[in-house]
Amino acid sequence: MTDVLLDTHCHLDAFANPSQVLAAAAAADVQVVAVTNTPDDYRRMATLLPRGGAARAALGLHPLHAHRLGMGGVLRFSRHAAGAAWIGEIGLDFSPAGRDTRDAQLKTFDALLALPQLRDRPVTVHTRGADKIAVQRLVDARIRAVLHWYTGPLGVADEALAAGLHFSVNPSMLASAKGRTLLARIPQDRVLCETDGPFARRSGHPCQPADLPAMIEELAVLWHVSAAHARTQICANQRRITDEKAASPA
Ligand SMILES: [Zn+2]
């Protein structure tokens, strides 16, 4: 992963044509972290993806599935944790979609954050409507998390930055005023790429990993640097977050 862009949050299993999406990613020289929403989805994804290919599976338990999966889901998650290179999607969602399952989400999130395996690998985290409480828990648990598609208050983003967390940005964020305001706040060495495809959309199309080289060009304009410089910076950030994880003791 030396100079190859990494999509750190892509729902490969939600695309109608995952193999086409992967082929386009490989052609664009982009690697993919294929996040999952349940441990069973992770097991399927890890079995399907060829070893050494352009994508690796991330072990997830999405907050909106927490109440349904309960502690049995946490147990299944823990069984796979040692074998997963990336963790996600996990997190909290107190938006209207998740408000009623808040207690179950917190119970699951706390149980996941207590797993020792989460401290020595990258974790991509959903914090919608629960930004402050999620960031606080990630910091307390000493998780060097990547906050994915962050839409919370800028003050909480500052707390996350002060604690060493990273942010992943997608093409849809770069097209929004809110996303650009956030990006202006984040030091360049804390930014990673994601697409959140197929859920994030840009110009009416689902974002996909092959869109990342074009996003780097937009990022370069916002940063007032060359595209080559932006790419080098992002690749250095990717290396750091994966190396840090590999290097730090569990
Ligand atoms: Zn997602």
Describe the protein.
With 250 residues, the protein is of the alpha/beta class. It is built from ten helices and ten strands. An eight-stranded parallel sheet has the order 1-2-3-4-5-6-7-8. It has a two-stranded antiparallel sheet with strand order 9-10. Helix 3 links the parallel strand 3 and strand 4 (86-91). Helix 3 (66-81) packs parallel to helix 4 and helix 5 packs parallel to helix 6. Residues 9, 11, 35, 89, 196 line the site of zinc ion. Zinc ion binds at residues 9, 11, 35, 89, 196.
How is the topology of this model organized?
Layout: E1 5-10, H1 18-27, E2 30-34, H2 39-48, E3 55-59, H3 66-81, E4 86-91, H4 102-113, E5 123-126, H5 131-140, E6 145-148, H6 154-162, E7 166-169, H7 171-174, H8 177-185, E8 191-193, E9 201-202, E10 205-206, H9 212-223, H10 227-247
Parallel strand pairs: 1-2, 2-3, 3-4, 4-5, 5-6, 6-7, 7-8
Antiparallel strand pairs: 9-10
Helix pairs in contact: 3-4, 5-6, 9-10
The protein binds zinc ion (ZN).
